[in-house]
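Course assignment 3, question 2. Fill in each field.
Student: A.L.
Task: Predict the tertiary structure for the chain below.
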Amino acid sequence: MPELTLYFMPTCPFCQKVIKYLEQNDIIIPKKNTAASSQVRQELLSIGGKTQVPCLVIDGKALYESDDIIQWFRTTYRRSGDPA
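Answer field:
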């Protein structure tokens, strides 16, 4: 199973779109709030070269854009959260 982390900001509507999708599909992954910590923002910057959210980090590689993140889950994960 890939190692996943979602970087987000609570006030970002695109982040909320991804979080809502995860909740509706019972997908639980670690989340890091970039608004709460400059250390988390710096961590995201070092991973993907920018602080754009939402960002799903998959085995150390950044995937941006809410629609792309949701599509990744649709094609890679079953409802149970197990890899497809």
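Instructor remarks: The mean pLDDT is 92. The radius of gyration is 12 Å.
Grade: pending
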